[in-house]
Amino acid sequence: MSFLQIQHASKSFGAGAKRHTVLRDINLSVEKGEFVAIVGYSGAGKTTLINMLAGLNRPDSGSVTLNGAEITEPGPDRGVIFQNYSLLPWMTVYENIYLAVDQIFPNWTTERKKTETERNIALVNLTKAHDKKPGELSGGMRQRVSVARALAMDPQVLLMDEPLGALDALTRGVLQSEIEQIWEKNKKTVVLITNDVDEGILLADRIIPLSAGPEATLGPAVKVDIERPRDRKALNHDPRFKDIKLKVLDFLLGAGARKKTTLTRNLVLPDIEPEDITHQPVNWSINSQPKRRKEVQETKIEI
Amino acid sequence: MKKQPLFPYDWIVLPIIGATVILILWMLLSATVAADLPTPGKTWQDSKLYILDPFADRGEQDKGIMTLLGLSLITVAKGYVLALLVGVPLGFMLGLSDAFAKTFDPIFQILRPVSPLAWLPLGIILFFKTGEANSWGALFTIALCAMWPTVLNTAVGVRAIPQDYLNVARVLKLSKWKTLWKILVPATLPYMFTGFRLSLGIAWLVIVAAEMLTGTAGVGGFLWAEYNAGNNARIILCILAIGLVGFVLDKIMGFVEAQFKTA
To answer: Is B164 in Cβ contact with A80 (below 8 Å)?
Structure first.
């Protein structure tokens, strides 16, 4: 049995006619120390998948296990890095991270908790922003705080939900390198959710595409057998990189692409009495009939 | 962002012009149609004893204006603190528990619009045995009427807490107590202060009405006494003093509120 495992998990939301299945028959196994990236469309259910691993919601059927034990609720053994950082705006960087340390290691001395908090701040290069509040930080810095907070919990698994999704391309690149360095240092098990195939290849040991919703499911995993540390520039010319990217995109654009649905829409054109401006005055009475009666046009739209 | 001034010192020049316009209107009114309305000059003549010796204490209702305002403010402060002590926990319960909200929200909505003038007699009856029914009744009325904005704003604030913050609490497995103090209270604070500010405004409105009806010493009681004595000028003095204090209180609360606005 794998370290972190999802078996035949499905998840639906809503009730009655509005009920829709977001995830269907998800199977995933992650080994200890492995870095797995899940790549998929926006709105496919990626966040639902990570919330299932975090224990923030439960699958309708199937099972999610860590170390063989069923995940039923959130816990500090799984550090979550949220898409929108989820920092507490009334606390400084230090206080945000200290809250986590204080909570996870209640038996430590205050001195040790402080040192551990400082160490994690230094790890993400934020020592200068130590006493700043999240509102005073840029998006990239906020996400670093979020990473530091998750690391400070010393979790068995790090769950990252599109951690760099809201950042510009350059900041994204810098943080990708930092995440890789941090992972190299402590070799934690990581599940990264992203919509960027390149990001997945740069960071992960294995990439798994998630098909487009509704009823999204995981496609065949693609192993990234490129030695680390990976150089972003050199990577672009590496034939293995192109090969992996092609395999992932093949699934995402082929079998896993969005199922097309057609939608019929009625366009109702109104009654019209065109005015003839060449003949003055216009004769209009209560009995005049529209020259063109209303009509209904039917259009089909493919989405 | 600060707006561009219309001209230098417009923030002081324009309000003075506004006040002057009102003063002229007042003079015109008392000179023409409203003969019983004292002119600004007469108002000053009749009131200056109270303004120039603001801390005098000449009798039950006959005190300097600052002493009168002070007495009213003390009563307001007591009632207001009582309103917050009851209102905040009530607001939290309304916001946190659907069952509690469904049970009590309708009755709260019915009690909320009831005028202080309606509560006051009930308050006096309730505290009749204490021997100080008037002051306890006033306190009861202030607390009851001033409580609602705090209750409702706190409840709205609790409901508006982003799911993200609660997720943080769940992932860290914070205890109920720690979630309350580390997450719920700080996240609700800006809403709570909006409620506090509105509550203070209401408390100040209620005190005047309460003092007028009970005849307790204070600026409202003084106003009523002067009305009965036919000193119309001093009624205007009271109105101006009450308005000025209300304005200052609101400014103070606005300043405190701004300190708690988080990003």
So the answer is: no
| pLDDT of B17 higher than 90 | yes
Which pLDDT score, from 0 to 100, does residue B52 have? 79
**Chain A partners of B262 at a C-beta cutoff of 8 Å?**
89-90, 133, 135
Rounded CA Rg of chain A: 26
* Interface contact B256, partner A, CB < 8 A: no
Contacts of B75 (CB under 8 A, 6+ apart): B135, B138, B139, B142, B207, B210, B211, B216, B218
Contact B171 A78 (CB under 8 A): yes
Model ipTM? Answer: 0.72
Written as one letter, the residue type at A6 is I
Q: What is the pTM of this model?
A: 0.76
List chain B residues with CB under 8 Å of A84: 164
Angstrom CA distances, B97 to B5, B89, B90, B92, stand at 48, 12, 11, 8
Which residue has 């106003």 as its token pair?
B223
Q: Considering CB atoms only, which of A74, A82, A90 is closest to B186?
A: A90
d(CA A10, CA A59): 6
pLDDT in tens, chain A (303 residues): 788 988 888 888 887 777 888 888 888 999 998 999 999 887 778 888 888 999 888 888 888 999 888 888 888 889 888 888 889 999 999 999 999 999 989 999 999 999 999 998 988 888 888 899 998 898 888 988 998 998 888 888 999 988 888 788 888 888 888 888 888 888 889 999 998 888 888 889 999 988 887 788 888 888 888 887 788 788 888 888 888 888 888 888 877 666 655 666 777 777 766 555 565 555 666 776 666 667 777 777 665
Interface test with B, best of A99, A102, A156 (most B CBs within 10 A): A99
A-chain residue closest to B184, CA distance: A88
- Which site among B171, B180, B262 would you substitute to test the A interface, given the most A Cβ atoms closer than 10 Å to its Cβ? B171
Sign of the CA dihedral running A257, A261, A262, A264: negative
Nearest to B263 among A76, A80, A89 (CB): A89
CB contact under 8 A, B263 and A134: yes
Q: Quick check: B167 and A80 CB within 8 A?
A: yes
